[in-house]
Structures are given as C-alpha cells and as structure tokens.
Design a protein that fits this description.
Layout (H helix, E strand, L loop, with lengths): L1 E5 L3 H5 L1 H6 L3 E6 L10 H13 L3 E4 L3 E7 L2 E7 L2 E4 L2 E4 L8 H5 L32 E2 L6 E2 L4 H15 L13 E5 L2 E7 L2 H6 L4 E9 L10 E9 L5 E8 L4 H12 L4 H5 L15 H14 L1
Parallel strand pairs: 1-2, 1-7, 2-3
Antiparallel strand pairs: 4-5, 5-6, 8-9, 10-11, 11-14, 12-13, 13-14
Bound molecules: flavin-adenine dinucleotide (FAD).
C-alpha cells in the first residue's frame, strides 16, 4: 500500500512514522524547498536524512494540483512535476480561521483573516472576547500579530480572555512559538526566531550551529545534540534556537524559551548556571556550547 502526505510541515512530517509503522510506502510532497516551515536548515537537514533512511520518499518543490480516483478511492496525485500512484492521501497543508460567525456579528478580522484582538483579548465589539486558533496571535519578539495555531499560545489566550471577561485585567504578552515533535525517535524543537524568520522580519542578525552531547562522551549512551542559534547582531539579544537530538531536547528548548521571555542577550545565555553531571550533561551543557560559539561569532 502507498500513502502520500501532502505538506512537509509539522503534521505531515509527524505522520511519516505511524504510516511507515503500518507498513505503507510513504511519500511526502512539499511545495517549498524546506520541511518544517522556517526551521533552521542545520536541523531540518539531519531530519530529512533520517526520514529518508527510514524509507520515506521526500519530494520538495512540488505543488499538488488534483487527485484522480477510481470507484470512490483515490489512485493518483497529480502535481506540477508529474503523477504519483497512491492508495491513501493525507492532506496536512495548514489551517485557516473560521470567522464567518464573528464577521456576521460585525467583529473585525486582521492577519490571515483571524479575529482582531487587543492585548486583553477584546474584539472591537464591547463584551466580546476572542481567543484560540480563530484569533490573532501577538508575537513576543517582533510585536507583530500573526495567526499561528499552537496550543501553548491559544490556551494562555483563552485563560486571559476568560479572566478579563470575569472582570480582571490581564495582558497577553505574546508567544515565542516553542514547539517540539518526535519523528522516528528524533526530537526536534524550536523557539523564537529562526534565521529565516529574522531575515523576513528585517533583523540584522547572525546565526550559528553547534553539536554538543546530552550526556558525558565517556558514557556509552552519550548522544549528540545539534543546536542552531539566532542572535541580533546590534544588541546581542538572543532571538531563537533550534534543537535536534534523541534526548535532552525538551528541557533545553524550554530553558531557551524562558531566556527569550527574559530578553536575555547571548552573553546572558552563556552565563547561565546549568546543572552538570556526567549521566545528564557533559560539561558544559550543549546550551552553553551553542552560546559560546554564538558569542565568539558575534565578537568577530
Ligand atoms: C494535528 C494537530 C496537532 C497539534 N499539535 C499541537 C502540539 O503538539 N502543541 C501545540 O501547542 N499545539 C498543537 N496543535 C494546535 C492546537 O491543537 C490548537 O492551537 C488548539 O487546539 C486551539 O484551541 P481552540 O480552542 O482555539 O480550537 P479547538 O481546539 O479546535 O476547539 C474549537 C472547538 O470549537 C467547536 N466549534 C467550532 N465552531 C463552533 C460553533 N459555531 N459553535 C460551537 N462550537 C464550535 C469545535 O467543534 C471545537 O471543539 C495541533 C493541532 C493539530 C491540528
């Protein structure tokens, strides 16, 4: 049996493993030349190699045009670069807010058609609040609004909207878009701005990449952790990071997300005191290895 996944974003890439485990021949068709959106290439390159090693075919720069079927079942996916036989299609090409009800009520919509809200999650209609995938999402670093549906932000928005509707006055401070996925045992995480995000938002930035170990090299289970870092060249502000490894990824991306909220510079990150003991982390921790390399780059 063959399966085609349309879209090499987070959902599409995450679905490779379960479909392969079911014994299907899996092909991912991705419109751009990248997987996982704007994630750093040092990270996605390793992931691409891993999913190919696991037998997944990845075709980038291809746009799906239509599906062909026979007796109620899909048989082919037609693209601008040829046709692909298949028995199953999974479409994972993103979401758009459904705001018809809000529009009919006279509520203003903004970025990507999401409901416009202020920092208290208020819409333009008195007494009506909006939160979640249907609402604009303030970005902590750029201070721009976006519409990027992630439970970590939508959940907080919902809480703040509820509190304010009940008479409190709490502000939504914005998201740094911390995400983590597990694909064939590789944990891939990111927070803040990638190099591409920094470029698109007009930052004078630089990026660096390092490989550290999540546990002592001498330990038989020592495993490499790849990290990418984005830093504002003018101020040294730490803007974002990507991490890939088989373990020790989540706590590190959470630490770095906290650094972004604290508006730390790369020098501050390099001065963090992170627990170090052979079974858990080689000294220095991969975060400090990454910060050290970025600092070195900044000074040159
Ligand atoms: C496959 C997938 C994986 C994801 N994984 C992650 C993850 O790992 N981490 C993360 O942070 N986020 C993740 N997300 C995003 C996260 O799920 C969403 O951001 C979050 O669920 C948004 O919450 P919400 O309440 O706005 O919308 P929803 O959770 O979609 O809830 C909206 C509810 O409103 C109901 N509804 C719609 N219209 C009406 C109506 N007219 N009247 C009454 N009810 C209505 C719907 O039926 C639904 O139950 C994932 C999303 C998807 C699709």
């Amino acid at each position: 049996m063959k399966a085609i996944i349309v879209g090499g974003g987070y959902t599409g890439i995450m679905m490779c493993e379960p479909l392969r485990n079911m014994g299907l021949e899996v092909t991912v068709l991705e419109k751009t030349e990248r997987i996982l959106g704007t994630a750093d290439v040092e990270i996605t390159q390793i992931l691409e190699n891993e999913i190919k090693n696991k037998g997944v075919k990845l075709v980038k720069g291809v746009s799906v045009e239509r599906f062909v079927g026979h007796e109620g079942s899909v048989t082919e996916v037609v693209t601008d670069k040829g046709r692909f036989d298949t028995d199953l299609v999974l479409i994972a090409i993103g979401t758009r807010p459904n705001v018809e009800l809000a529009k009919r009520a006279g509520i203003n919509v903004g970025v990507n058609g999401a409901i416009k809200v202020d920092k208290y999650m208020r819409t333009n209609i008195s007494g009506v609040y909006a939160a979640g995938d249907c609402a604009e999402m303030l970005q902590f670093i750029t201070k721009k609004n976006a519409c990027n549906c992630l439970g970590i932000g939508t959940n907080r928005q919902g809480r703040i909207a509820g509190e304010n509707a009940a008479g409190m006055r709490n502000e939504f401070k914005g998201v740094v878009n911390t995400t983590i996925v597990d694909v064939f045992g590789l944990k891939v995480a990111r927070t803040g701005l990638s190099a591409i995000d920094a470029e698109c938002n007009g930052y004078d930035y630089f990026a660096s990449a390092t490989i550290g170990k999540s546990i002592c090299r001498a330990h038989p289970d020592g495993i490499p952790i790849t990290m990418s870092c984005t830093v504002d060249r003018t101020t040294g502000r730490f803007l974002g990071a990507g991490i890939l490894g088989q373990g020790g990824v989540k706590q590190r991306i959470d630490t770095l997300a906290t650094c972004i909220y604290a508006k730390m510079t790369i020098k501050d990150v390099n001065n963090l005191e992170l627990a170090c003991m052979p079974p858990f982390a080689e000294g220095p921790d991969p975060i400090l290895v990454a910060a050290d390399e970025a600092l070195r780059k900044w000074r040159h």
